[in-house]
Amino acid sequence: MIYEIRTYGDQVLREDALKVEEINEEIVEIVENMVETMRDAGGVGLAAPQVGINKRIFVIDVEDGITRKVINPEFLEYSDEIVEHEEGCLSIPGVYKKVKRPARVKIKYTNEKGEEVVEEAEGLLSRAFQHENDHLNSTLFVDRISPVAKRMVSKKLQMLKKETLKRQK
Ligand SMILES: [Zn+2]
Description:
By secondary structure, the protein is an alpha+beta fold. Helices cover 31% and strands 25% of the residues. The chain has helices at residues 25-41, 123-136, 147-168; strands spanning 45-47, 57-60, 68-78, 82-87, 97-102, 105-110, 116-121. The radius of gyration is 16 Å and the shape is globular. Zinc ion is lined by residues 89, 91, 131, 135. The active site is at residue 132.
């Protein structure tokens, strides 16, 4: 099942997601639907709040042969080195801006089989882990861009918010 992707201005994107207490059939189904939704939208990552589900789950596919299904993630380490790279978001269509983030991360999470996974990541995968995890803490990448960049996209964001609120009526 393909979920509707919630867009900028939707309140669910600004709520902290809740920990998954038990990995049951419902959770497995949500994860599978999220993978389907991400593929359909052509994204490299999708977090549960983006489809209106207030749970600490995200999926990532950076085309390295592994589709990551991440439940209750926790960062164990961040590198001191910071890198800047352009980001976009399925919930903020048409907006792409540079964001500074730690180059490498070490992350721990539970997968859809209930197994604990610890991974070290760099490059696009590291960035995707951080971007998606932000969604679980009600943070969007546009919160992390420079003030100048923010001014450049403020009109576009206002417009998106208006469209989102109109659709919800
Ligand atoms: Zn996003």
